[in-house]
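Lecture 7, part 2: worked example. A protein chain together with 1-deoxynojirimycin.
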Amino acid sequence: MTAPNRDQWWRDAVIYQIYPRSWADSNGDGIGDLPGITARLPHLADLGVDAVWLSPFYTSPQKDAGYDVADYRDVDPLFGTLADIDALIARGHELGLRVLVDVVPNHSSDQHPWFQAALAAGPGSRERARYLFRPGKGRFGDKPPNNWPSLFGGPAWDRVTEADGTPGEWYLHLFDSSQPDFDWTNPEVADEMADVLRFWLERGVDGFRVDVAHGLAKKPGLPDLEEGSVEMLSATANAPMWDQPAVHDIYRRWRTLTDSYSPPGRDEDKMMCAEAWVVPATALAKYVRSDEMHQCFNFGILTAPWRASDLREVISDSMDAVAEVGAPPTWVLSNHDVVRHATRLGYPPAEGPERMFGIGADDPQPDVALGLRRARAAVALTLALPGSAYLYQGEELGLPDATRLPDEARQDPTWERSGHVIRGRDGCRVPIPWEADRPAFGFGPSEDTWLPQPPEYADYAVDRQRGVEGSTLELYRTLLRLRKDHRLGRRTLTWLEVGEDVVGFELAAEGDRTVRVLTNLSAEPVILPADAEVLVRTRHEDGPLAPDETVWLRLR
Ligand code: NOJ
Ligand code: CA
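Predicted complex, written out as structure tokens:
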């Protein structure tokens, strides 16, 4: 037994997500890479975050932008080398940033040697038993083994051609057909993935973001899905592919492993965060019981409409659920899978969540100014909350989604697999603008970018905002500094009754003055208490709290 670490850095950490393809390109091929990231890390130290999480950079044919891994222990040449990731981790640590990496345990790439061996070895082999191969239904076996859909559209099964040229078994892929699901009942799979975790822990990473954490265990027998449909990334209640009880055994084993790399008495816990689209909050909280993961993403705020009652409800439900198991809540507004919140919030409140999975040039366009105003209010609200927060690259610039990308430029497999119905996730993955007047807005040394950057991204470039009073970048820096100074992530929250359309709470801490947070979601200004000191406000004006504005007040 290791003594519980009193500090546990992850309990209130602010973690910044880097999507390696799109953050910084060092060699001008238009794709972001590890040396590019390392060179730009000072931006994050300066911003004031505690950790970075890197989306996958492993060897991969990039059919799902790296979430299709062909070698879990190597770096794709597109992004660099193992020496480059070592350098990145070392530089991060030098700058006081912890480094988390993505682990993709639900499926591999079809180019993974195991899957290639499974294809070659044929039905009934040990090689096939690492994946979910099944005979088809119907007289000729030409119907998929069950009715499960792929989250990217179409059926979740593809049929292989056996070595002798005959149509053969089917394999399960909850995502793209190039992403075969592992069979986690096979101990070989479990051992291999534990070894992959060890590999990265030995290289010095501080933890893992666990992809599709709710999907690894499937219901025995792979029974049909009753409703006949699943929503993108969301766990339909009782669906046989999501949130099965056996999944928790996996994370118990992993926790023992990460604990064995967490030196007692030093604040150096290795931590894990589950990406699990599980509802309700109480089911999700099971992933963060004290012998499982440390954190889980809480997608509640990300999917909630911009309405005070909804926000209050999702905040208190998610805090209550994790409190039951002693884990910190987490807050996420954006990531690489959804339309950026500065854009979602630019639609009428109930419409934003519906627009989550991609916007095209011929869709209704958002009110950009309104979206930014709300995005600033939203982040000030979430960064005040107890627990840990995740930021998605570019949100510190107030970056909107690229909502007018030409469809020919799209690369997310969702667009093709959905038969051109769901635009998909390219709009939030466009390369970041660093310097307004440089090629590719400073993303790299050439004009090339793997997705086209909208011309208006120049206005959001880092160099247009650094040191500029009232800019979104400076707002983030201020919020993060104050959050740290006042240890807001560790405080106790008490709700205030401040009107139907205002979210209000106080944050108390022993030995420090109480901080009051108000977010005005009404159309009317709200009078602020006269005797309180304004720590920060998001519309940068004097007088009452404007609509769509958040303020942090320090009570005297
Ligand atoms: C969730 C990841 O965030 C997403 O980008 C990916 O496509 C799926 N998991 C499949 O790995
Ligand atoms: Ca590059």
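The CA atoms of residues 523 and 547 lie 5 Å apart. DSSP finds 15 helices and 18 strands in the chain. Keep this in mind for problem set question 3.
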